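TOPIC: backbone geometry
CONTENTS: sequence, structure tokens:
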Amino acid sequence: MPLVSIVVPVLDDFEAAAALLAQVAPDPRVEIVLADGSTDVRLDRLAGARPDARIVRTQTGRARQMNAGAAAAGGAWLWFVHADSRLPPEWLSCFTALPPAAAGGWFRFALDDAAWQARLVEAGVGWRVRVLSLPYGDQGLFVRRDLFGRIGGFAELPLMEDVEFVRRLRRAGPIVEMPLALGTSSRRWRRDGWLRRSARNVALVTLYLAGVAPARLARWYAPRR
């Protein structure tokens, strides 16, 4: 049984998925599960070229795709990674060093951009995680595979599936923030504007925690998602 199953939800982002797989050296402790929300045949060739990779297909929806990938995974740990993430070189050693009682956790947040605005966003995320223990999905959430099933996996919400999952994960057992940062693409901040995107993210999660339905939030977010 692999130690870690990297579950990657993919939707019309072949180039990012190919770049992510190129960062994962073949290792018997690791498997990769691409959860495709469309029918991109290039992903079949990408997964077929590696014995440690497989592909599953399901209906579009990040939560649905991650659940489908988790169901096909065999690793002791499920690590949910966005396709456009950049893995830290020593990421696997973090999993081998996890305490036996750990239920799950996340990595630190870093943007792949030298702009000063990126450092401000990183500082804001660091504050949110330290004070609220509330990482988002782009920080590489991970969980024990057996626990993932017991707590019901990801709720198939149109938005905020990561926030909802983390709130349940925190109640399930000890959580860990890995000492390394998982790189996140800055393309959406560049596209939407640094301040505008960050402010919208804060507004959306605040409204969600205040009780606004994810379906309503998704309608507001959809033009940019």
